[in-house]
From TrEMBL, chain A:
This is RING-type E3 ubiquitin transferase. Pfam families: zf-CCCH (PF00642), zf-CCCH_2 (PF14608), zf_CCCH_4 (PF18345). The lineage of its organism: Eukaryota, Viridiplantae, Chlorophyta, Pyramimonadophyceae, Pyramimonadales. Residues 1-28, 29-56, 134-161, 336-365 form the C3H1-type domain. One of its GO terms (biological process) is protein polyubiquitination. Keywords: Metal-binding, Transferase, Zinc, Zinc-finger. It comes from Cymbomonas tetramitiformis. Gene3D superfamilies: 3.30.1370.210, Pneumovirus matrix protein 2 (M2), zinc-binding domain (1.20.120.1350), Zinc/RING finger domain, C3HC4 (zinc finger) (3.30.40.10). Residues 252-307 form the RING-type domain.
From TrEMBL, chain B:
It comes from Cymbomonas tetramitiformis. The active site is at C88. One of its GO terms (molecular function) is ATP binding. The keyword Nucleotide-binding applies. Pfam families: UBA, UQ_con. Residues 152-192 form the UBA domain. This is E2 ubiquitin-conjugating enzyme. Residues 3-150 form the UBC core domain. Keywords: ATP-binding, Nucleotide-binding, Transferase, Ubl conjugation pathway. Belongs to the ubiquitin-conjugating enzyme family. InterPro entries: UBA (IPR015940), UBA-like_sf (IPR009060), UBC (IPR000608), UBQ-conjugating_AS (IPR023313), UBQ-conjugating_enzyme/RWD (IPR016135). Its EC number is 2.3.2.23. It comes from the Eukaryota.
Amino acid sequence: MTNRILCKYYASGACRKGDACPFSHDWNDPMSQVCKFYLLGSCGYGNRCRYNHTRPDRATVGSPSSPVGFRNIPVASRPSPQGTAAVSPASAAAASPPPPLASPGFCMRLPENFDDELGWGEVPEEPEVDVGYWAKQPLCSMAMKGFCARGATCPYLHGELCSSCGKWCLHPYRPEESAKHAQRCAEERAKKDKDEALRRSSADVECGICLEQALPAVCGAAGLEGSAGCLWSRGAGRLCRLAFELWARAWCMSCQTVMGKERKADRRFGILTACDHSFCLGCIRGWRAGATTNSAEEVTRSCPICRTRSHFIVPSTFWVSCADDKEALVQNYREKLAMIPCKHFNYGNGSCPFGGSCFYAHADSSGRPEEAQTLRHAATEDGVSVLQPVRLSSFLDGFDRATRLTHA
Amino acid sequence: MPYDAARVQKELVEIERDKASGVGIEMKGDNLGHLVGVIKGPESSPYDGGTFKVDIEITPSYPFEPPKMRFITKVWHPNVSSQNGAICLDILKDQWSPALTLKTALLSVQALLSSPEPDDPQDAVVAKQYINEQETFRSTARYWTEAFAKVVNDDDKVTRLVEMGFGEGDVKAALAKCGGDENAALEQLCGGS
């Protein structure tokens, strides 16, 4: 099987195995674009997978008669697998709305009299396009990224530009899928933009403990937009994260802007639920963990500034100033935690000191949730202690027995 | 790094900028872990006109732990030990919060000078005097302020010590060794002779 699949390294001119490569080094062979995990049953990336989630038809993929193997124009004379009117990618491009090959993702220009040379110029009516067949064909991954070296000779379909993600990934023959993609992309884009705006607005929020900004500050030289300009002004969201990191660091060191925390993991806020004072996550966690031996728990559990007691803190990559945003953040945090199994509960083998108010999931190994239990807190000489769970039903049982005894 | 040096540095810059607050901090060499706070005696109190020095030791887990503060200058105050200068103030103990800074802590000490808390004393003798003999307490406190907390020029100190019969060179050397403390210099001069 593998010897009929084009080596992806060879395709990009980088295969070092030469003749020993188990994959084909013949441009005639197709490249595998099918996700191998999908074929095995499950792909962790789901819809986000960069490979195709399609089960290839044995009759088409890799077989010499398959249109996937087409590489030369003209191919109009080749019979289509369905036996309908012959359609080549090129002619489909000319005929179908939207054309698969007319997208601006190609640099390769066809000669002006190309159609005449092939004798297609005289075709009076547009050839019929077998939509059903083309809908099954995968998109060219290279064209998806913006440029396919094979241009018009590419055996794969070339998609259309998705304005949100900037990839040529809209399948021309799968309108439903394309619409869904465009919608999802637009939503993601809107969310990203919102996050970016939030990040920008939280850049100058200072931690009350270390007195530093938790996030990298917006560079003061942003005014240089267009020239050397700060990365922030050039839409950092679109760049590689690592590149962004290095770039921003180098730049801001040179202009002496406070870069916030050294480690990226530290660039987070610890949002207190009861008040609106800002702290970075590391600082507020350090304080609440009881670094001081002298301080009572009621002191460490309260806000260092206003001393309002918060029962928990929520990590956030941006500062929330609006109450609705904060509520959504807390809700989101709790929902996320509820999906993580509680290590104290240990699938029913242990006991969690937080009982029913634990944020983590209390479920046994089969996923069945724990029955709700009541915890009783009683004031003892030492303070507050947690007793064994006591149920109302246990009192009722006792009450039942007592009444029965009385009646007897 | 034993303590958050960046934060201490920021606090120092902030204190330096706000000179009107009546508190200040001096560096003891290059060590950020050991500083000297300077508090001006609050007006309309027996400590008015005095300049009190506070020894500040930044603990390794600062700002999660309070800095250790102790009066270097002798103070007659119910909440300050007359023997070793220890301060009894809740925010320097269990009520410390990392949002407090050296400046706010020094301001709190300054506020403590103007409003003593005899119910929670550090020095029982002073507290007793404060409760029973308010006038005596005030005069003693004022006397201690005059005697220990007044800034005296080095020249005056030298002149006074020379008048006592010591050589000028010895006096200057002794003063330099004791960091300008006239009494310590006197003791050294007496001990050495």
